[in-house]
Amino acid sequence: MSGQPPHAVARTLGAVLMRIRPAPFAVAIKNLLGVKRIEVETAEGRFWLDPASEFGQRLLTTGVYEPEVAATLRRILGPGGTFFDVGANEGYFSVIASRIVGTAGRVVAVEPQNRLQPVLKRNFAINGAANASVTAAAVSDASGVAELNLSPSMNTGASSLILRTRYAQQKESVPTKTLAEIVADAGVGRIDLLKMDIEGWEYEAILGSRPLFEAGLVRALALELHADHLRARGLDGTPIFDFLTGCGYRRAPEFDTLVFLLPQPTA
User: Fold this and answer.
1) pLDDT of 2 higher than 50
2) pTM summary value
3) What is the CATH number of the domain that holds 170?
4) Which of 123, 136, 193, 201 could form a disulfide with 91 if both were Cys (CB 3.0 to 4.6 A apart)?
């Protein structure tokens, strides 16, 4: 691999490490080898990523990550818009939204993991995302403190308030806030698009902030519903769907993601 460009070496090594199981063993080898984050230029921006991770491998091999979500952002957001990225992970969609909404817009990335705070800040800095801010909290149905189960660094996006692995995971005490509290703290009156991907805690996040949706303060919700996580807790998405429908939202089949839209007032 010595004759390959540095990013090609990182991509190849990362791919090898990603095949090792169990994941904690792969992390130990990654640490032993001293694998570091690298900055990679893509069509969506520049990202400081871990080559031995799900997110890093996607960008290194294809240049994009979940393009259907990015397409949803582009269809709904526009200049001056407001985007909330709940479960922001490393800030990929926040960076895309930052460019779309421009200097007159707002982006709020909500991510509780301590290890990702410097990653978010750096990704925002190298992309000039001055309109983006970070809220370091987990969204729930009450303010407080919760134990977050940290997934191995091979896939930081799988960290959850629910333990769903056969092996023990490192835990981190994180603050919890309701979505309504986070919106109020940000001083935002209306959200044009709220993207939510929080690994099975969407039940508490949405139903714990009912007034936000009842008042129509969220124009569009792009929801990653983790049905397997909900089933493990004896729940399903029906109460969420029924609640949103009762607030006037409609499921929008024209999107490749699960999107709920409020009807727009006619001129």
Assistant:
1) no
2) 0.94
3) 3.40.50.150
4) 123
